[in-house]
């Protein structure tokens, strides 16, 4: 007879959830969001943790949370914030994430820290629009930074014909190292040096030339590893993603094709709601099959409504106005007085404009004396 594993009960931001032993706090939070999509905002952000990669997590500290009660047996809080991606749940644990101001404050500091050396070159970076650091900074960062020193610079490394390395953008999350280690036959790149001098490099400038190396592009949360065959071809929000597959003898070939008009400009692995690759794809599918006739098209890729990639891709008659926008409009904007007379007489328009300018000048003179 099948025995049910003992479940541990934890309270995460006031919501109770039961999970198996060995589950991390991050996974428990994702479980809540998977059961109720409206709770997605509760899930801690992850810049280094990547479920498909064994051993990932614990590097970036983006996912820190407060354990307000260690367990039912030991009700003391944990003294410091803990990384939710590698901390296992205990029965009776109470965790605070968005409900704890100290966590939110700490997260701002982590964003600031990750941006110390990261260039603000989003306008020319191929990752813009699907960059986890952009999302992290937008959702959790503050608008200013105190760092005044010079940013790190690196010598250029050529890591082969398919992958472009921009070391200045790397946040040292180690995802690409785990990917190369776990899904390719031999890893030829890794993190060299320590602390400020740490960098991703290939040993003796070897190319990453095995069949699955392109997957490091998909796991990189920032634009440090990008697709050389796609560089500068388009902004991601102008392209149209479509799910497709083909008959491939190396991988499942379940991919997303990215179209510009009729042209396939990029092929990537498909990703789940957490931005993680569902199935690894081979370099032949990724870099060499760029014709529609190479593929069996399944249909448009489901893109989260909140993603910039979804911009302009929905029919107006199927889009419901988001509630938050209506609430914001109600609370922040005055109703427009449409009953005002419609004036066309040029002299009256001129006089009204002079009067409006005079009032505006008076207001700004008043504000200046107040300050
Ligand atoms: S290159 Fe990208 S995936 Fe690799 S460690 Fe740097 S940020 Fe992470
Ligand atoms: S996602 Fe948990 S430490 Fe990076």
How do the helices and strands line up, and which of them pair or pack?
Elements: E1 7-12, E2 15-20, H1 25-35, E3 64-69, E4 82-83, E5 94-96, H2 101-114, H3 132-140, E6 163-165, H4 175-183, E7 189-192, E8 199-202, H5 215-219, E9 225-227, E10 240-245, E11 255-260, E12 263-269, H6 283-288, E13 296-300, H7 323-332, H8 346-370
Parallel strand pairs: 1-5
Antiparallel strand pairs: 1-2, 3-4, 3-5, 6-9, 7-8, 10-11, 10-13, 11-12
Helix pairs in contact: 2-3
Bound molecules: iron/sulfur cluster and FE2/S2 (inorganic) cluster.
Iron/sulfur cluster is lined by residues 170-176, 200, 219-222, 224-225.
Domain 2Fe-2S ferredoxin-type: 8-101
Protein name: NADH dehydrogenase subunit G
Cofactor: [4Fe-4S] cluster; [2Fe-2S] cluster
Query: Which oligomerization state do the chains in this entry correspond to?
Result: single chain
Distance between the termini: 77 Å
Shape: globular
Number of domains: 3
Rg estimate, integer Å:
25 Å
Fill in the CATH topology of the largest domain.
Answer: Ubiquitin-like (UB roll)
Q: Number of helical segments?
A: 8
CATH architecture of the largest domain: Roll
- N to C succession of SSEs: EEHEEEHHEHEEHEEEEHEHH
- Structural class of the secondary structure composition? alpha+beta
Taking the sheet with the most strands, its summary is: 5 strands, mixed
CATH C-level label of the largest domain: Alpha Beta
Q: What is the strand tally?
A: 13
Beta-sheet strand percentage?
15-25%
């Amino acid at each position: 007879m099948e025995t049910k594993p003992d479940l541990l009960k934890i309270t995460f931001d006031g919501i109770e959830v039961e999970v198996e032993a060995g589950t991390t706090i991050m996974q428990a939070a994702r479980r809540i969001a998977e059961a109720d999509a409206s709770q997605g905002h509760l899930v801690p952000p992850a810049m280094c943790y990547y479920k498909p990669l064994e051993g990932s997590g614990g590097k970036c500290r983006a996912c820190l949370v407060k354990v307000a009660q260690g367990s039912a047996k030991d009700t003391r809080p944990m003294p410091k914030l803990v990384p939710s991606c590698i901390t296992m749940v205990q029965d009776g644990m109470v965790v605070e994430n968005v409900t704890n101001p100290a966590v939110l404050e700490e997260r701002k500091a982590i964003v600031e820290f990750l941006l110390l050396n990261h260039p603000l070159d989003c306008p020319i970076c191929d990752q813009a629009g699907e960059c986890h650091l952009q999302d992290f900074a937008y959702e959790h960062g503050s608008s200013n930074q105190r760092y005044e020193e010079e940013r790190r610079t690196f010598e250029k490394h050529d890591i082969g014909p398919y992958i472009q390395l921009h070391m200045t953008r790397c946040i040292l999350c180690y995802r690409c190292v785990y990917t190369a280690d776990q899904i390719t036959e031999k890893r030829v790149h890794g993190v060299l040096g320590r602390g400020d001098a740490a960098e991703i490099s290939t040993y003796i400038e070897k190319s990453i030339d095995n069949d699955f190396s392109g997957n490091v592009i998909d796991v990189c949360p920032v634009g440090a590893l990008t697709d050389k065959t796609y560089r500068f071809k388009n902004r991601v929000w102008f392209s149209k993603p479509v799910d497709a597959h083909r008959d491939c003898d190396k991988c499942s070939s379940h991919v997303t094709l990215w179209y510009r008009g009729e042209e396939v400009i990029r092929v990537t692995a498909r990703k789940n709601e957490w931005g993680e690759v569902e199935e690894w794809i081979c370099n032949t599918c990724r870099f060499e099959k760029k014709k529609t006739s190479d593929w069996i098209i399944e249909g448009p890729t489901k893109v989260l409504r909140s993603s910039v990639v979804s911009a302009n891709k929905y029919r107006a008659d199927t889009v419901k106005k988001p509630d938050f926008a209506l609430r914001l409009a109600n609370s922040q904007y005055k109703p427009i007085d449409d009953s005002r007379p419609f004036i066309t007489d040029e002299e009256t328009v001129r006089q009204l404009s002079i009067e409006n300018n005079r009032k505006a000048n008076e207001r700004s003179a008043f504000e200046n004396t107040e300050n």
